[in-house]
Amino acid sequence: MPSMSFSDYISSSPSLRYLFFGGKGGVGKTVTAAGTAKFFADLGKRTIISSTNPVHSLSSIFQRDIWGKGVQKISENLYAIEFNIERTVERYRADMREKLMAFIKSADIPVDPEPFLDAATTNPAFEEAAMFDEMVDLILKDEFDVYVFDTAPVAHTYRLLGLSKVYDLWLKRLIKSREEALSTKVKLSFRKEKILEEMKKDPILQSALETRKKTEEAKKILTDSSKTAFFFVTLPLALPIAVIERFITWVKAFDIPIGGVIVNGVIPKSLGRVPNPSTYVVNKLKEQDGYLELIHQKFPDLVRAYVPLYEREVVGLEMIGKVAEALRSGGFELIQ
Ligand SMILES: Nc1ncnc2c1ncn2[C@@H]1O[C@H](COP(=O)(O)OP(=O)(O)O)[C@@H](O)[C@H]1O
Ligand SMILES: [Mg+2]
Asked: What GO molecular function terms would the record report (predicted)?
């Protein structure tokens, strides 16, 4: 057994609190994230699983409408939150409008802000940024022991870390120029104590400072390998393997801690050892063997667990409990 198992990895990282799941659509990110959340809840940790996915995947797996309803208790130590991102985007838009109007007013620019707002907010990056913000806000509230994020915003995280230098420079300049503009205004009135007061009220400066603080905190958390781990979920198939290979290269480049790879949907090899196995099973197992070998070659020492392909969809706490059990055991017997 060359790789450290999921259980061993978790016990070797006692301060682990933030777990992210990435991978191609449909590979079982929600399933393994829910299994992981159950795993931690069973250890007695107050655990929350969170999703910003617009397809209501948590409502579906927990068989309860929790979408847009805030934190919901699922079972002992297990909580879930499914964000309504459309609503977040709407709120951001209103907030941006307010700030833009204040700016236009203070700078005396006679311009209609609507086209700018449209351009800024009807952009997929805006939605992604909103999701990212919800995630950081949830973390910063610090109400849980363990946070499991279904579907990591891998692309956004990657961009955030890559752009953070440029972004930081831009924010620094923005902050400096707002400070200068305000202090000139205040100096003219010869009332120094008004400088601070005015600055505190300036909505543009405030939001720039807040964004910067949040970006920094997010960056600190995301790159702390004692607290954070990204897990990559794949099926024993070519395309999902290629997707996580790309993700792993990205996150490595930015020192985002990699928890490991979870191989989902594994057909137990024992099915081929029954008397007269069907050709279908024999062929599928042969194909699977090839991909398991490929996974082994591409991600040596990273496979943490094999989760079996169940006879039916994974919905409801009982099935999620089975996934938690598979993670706990590592499922290495499936491939023997
Ligand atoms: N190991 C498994 N056995 C059986 N069905 C599974 C398994 N893993 C996932 N599924 C099913 O496959 C579908 C996709 O899984 P899901 O976790 O929603 O993928 P993702 O979140 O990566 O898009 C769901 O219907 C789920 O119930
Ligand atoms: Mg999902």
From this structure: ATP binding; ATP hydrolysis activity
